[in-house]
């Protein structure tokens, strides 16, 4: 693009939030009853080579993204965290070892996010401003987590799936940015949903992106960008582009189907996605969305009337 040409095609597309939840193939919720945390240290890690492929793809497409990273992973791969940050991406927190927030009490949660953040800031040399709960595990059971995030000075969270799902979800939560703590500017940026047949459907990535045809994600992101006039928030995992990862014996069939379907096509679909739409880091999305965030205080979640700002 020639910067001196005044009317040269400025990119007027909405910038969407691109995120990678950085965990290894054995750290996913689907296998938590089969592989114990105490066994993690003995397993062959594959996260670093997968992250390098992702960094290459993002560099080639000219996009920047946010890497929500486990403290456990950062501690073992500090140079990888530095490479992510040095490439201009945001390093943010995914907690220490993928324990779900609703299984913590507040004190244990406070310790978990403090530990993860210390490690991530040490490795990246940058301040950590964002948090994503493992398995989108902030819901009405664990909404006190927002108060803790606010008190620890986080700028934003992207920890709510505003949808009904078998493992997670908070269907009453707003679909777009909200302020979960009345006394704080902390903003929650929920993962993307689309409206299909009058119902919210998950459209922000994960297994849905892998299993469904790419055209579904294209349709959903266009709906969010053009009809809602909001940014979409998309996420995926490093192990999803790794068809050669070890197969976990003894896992339930349903978990295996969810984890292994579509791995071989994932890299190609991701490439389509990052080229077709415009993407940026989650801290930039949060800064922009904070201006349009609605109040939705979790302590009265059942009774709170949702105030949708007209597009
Ligand atoms: Zn995760």
How much of the sequence lies in strands comes to: 5-15%
Broad structural category:
alpha/beta
Chain-averaged pLDDT: 91
Radius of gyration: 19 Å
| Helical coverage, percent range | 25-40%
CA distance, first residue to last residue? 31 Å
Main sheet specs: 5 strands, parallel
Count of extended strands:
12
**What is the overall number of helices?**
10
Ligand inventory = zinc ion
- Write down the overall geometry: globular
Strand/helix succession: EHEHHEHEHEEEEEHHEHHEHE
Ranges where pLDDT stays below 50 over 5 or more residues in a row are: 1-5, 300-311
In a nutshell, what does this entry contain?
The chain has 311 residues and is of the alpha/beta class. The chain has helices at 47-61, 71-76, 78-86, 106-124, 144-151, 207-211, 214-227, 253-260, 263-276, 282-289; strands at residues 15-22, 66-69, 90-93, 130-131, 156-157, 178-179, 187-188, 193-196, 199-202, 233-236, 278-280, 294-295.
Descriptive account of the structure:
It is a single chain. Strands 1, 2, 3, 10 and 11 form a 5-stranded parallel β-sheet that branches. A 3-stranded parallel β-sheet has the order 4-5-7, sandwiched between helices. Strands 6-12 form a two-stranded parallel ribbon. It is 34% helix and 13% strand. The two termini are 31 Å apart. It has 311 residues and is of the alpha/beta class. It is globular, with a radius of gyration of 19 Å. Helix 4 crosses helix 5. The structure holds zinc ion.
């Amino acid at each position: 693009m020639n910067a001196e040409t005044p009317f040269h095609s400025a990119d007027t597309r909405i910038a969407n939030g691109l995120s990678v939840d950085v965990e290894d193939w054995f750290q996913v919720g689907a296998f938590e009853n089969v592989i114990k945390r105490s066994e993690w240290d003995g397993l062959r890690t594959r996260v670093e080579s997968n992250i390098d492929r992702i960094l290459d793809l993002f560099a080639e497409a000219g996009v920047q993204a946010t890497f929500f990273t486990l403290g456990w992973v950062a501690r073992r791969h500090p140079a990888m965290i530095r490479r992510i940050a040095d490439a201009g991406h945001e390093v943010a927190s995914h907690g220490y070892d993928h324990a779900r927030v609703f299984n913590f009490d507040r004190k244990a949660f406070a310790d978990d996010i403090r530990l993860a953040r210390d490690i991530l800031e040490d490795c990246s040399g940058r301040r950590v401003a964002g948090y994503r709960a493992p398995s989108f595990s902030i819901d009405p059971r664990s909404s006190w987590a927002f108060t803790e995030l606010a008190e620890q000075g986080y700028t934003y969270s992207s920890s709510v799936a505003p949808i009904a799902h078998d493992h997670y979800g908070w269907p009453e939560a707003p679909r777009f940015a909200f302020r979960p703590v009345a006394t704080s500017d902390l903003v929650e940026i929920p993962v993307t949903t689309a409206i299909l047949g009058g119902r919210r459907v998950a459209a922000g990535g994960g297994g849905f992106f892998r299993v469904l045809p790419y055209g579904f994600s294209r349709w959903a992101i266009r709906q969010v960008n053009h009809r809602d006039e909001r940014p979409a928030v998309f996420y995926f995992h490093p192990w999803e582009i790794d068809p050669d990862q070890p197969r976990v014996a003894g896992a339930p069939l349903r978990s295996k189907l969810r984890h292994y379907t579509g791995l071989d096509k994932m890299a190609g679909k991701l490439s389509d996605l990052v080229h077709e739409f415009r993407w940026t880091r989650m801290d930039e999305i949060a800064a922009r969305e904070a201006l349009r965030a609605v109040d939705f205080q979790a302590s009265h979640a059942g009774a709170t009337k949702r105030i949708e700002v007209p597009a």
